[in-house]
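Hi D.,

Good news: the full-assembly prediction came through. Inputs first.
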Amino acid sequence: MFAGYVIDTNIHAAYLLQGYEADPLTKKYLAFYSKIPLSQRLVPDFIMNEFELFITQVAPAKYRMSGEQATSFDKAVTTYLRDIATSFTLLTTPLEAYKIAFSLYEQNTQHRHISFTDSLLVALAKQQDFLLLTKDRRLQTIAKELQVGYFDPKFAPGLQ
Amino acid sequence: MYKTVSITNKTYQELNTLSARLEKPKSQLIAELVRKLHKSMEGQEKQKLDAFNAKMQTLIAHIQLPRGTKVSTENIDEDFRVLKDTPGVF
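Then the structure:
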């Protein structure tokens, strides 16, 4: 038994945009994601913030959606956001995780930049003993160094 | 690794009584209670997940992007750069 996976923004985004992403590795991440019980999908406040901004501002601009396309997209987005808020497990960030995140952020500034949001994500997983679900290879490398568990599709050959 | 939780005095007394009666450490009792609660929720969780997956797959299937659009969620951080050209954001 375990508390669950902290879900990165790239997983939420890939989930909603899955009809247009052909990458086979992403399909494996999503196959795994679709099997995680809703209450074991952990969504930190800062990820909710990043994902909402991405899906409501970045995606429509990047993919140049028409009015009609934006309407069907909004319907899926609104439903998904509501389900995150009501059925997933929302997390606030403890002060200790912020301190770990800032330390990570500083350590990685020079040789392999990671955003403060990504630093927070891996710091929260470390501090709260959560597993991590992200497609970000750099984040996985840092998670491995910090002995934070994460899903790796290489070790789940049956998923598709 | 151990963590601290705060519980009411009454709950603590009841836990203490159970611990003495069953001759088990309080931490073990809490672990067992959590395990049993988790087990009882599994069936409901599966139903909720199946309903959620079905609903979302229908909505996702209706998402239409411009013809020929190929999505990559490999570098979300980079994608945020699109906002610098969007009036009214930042």
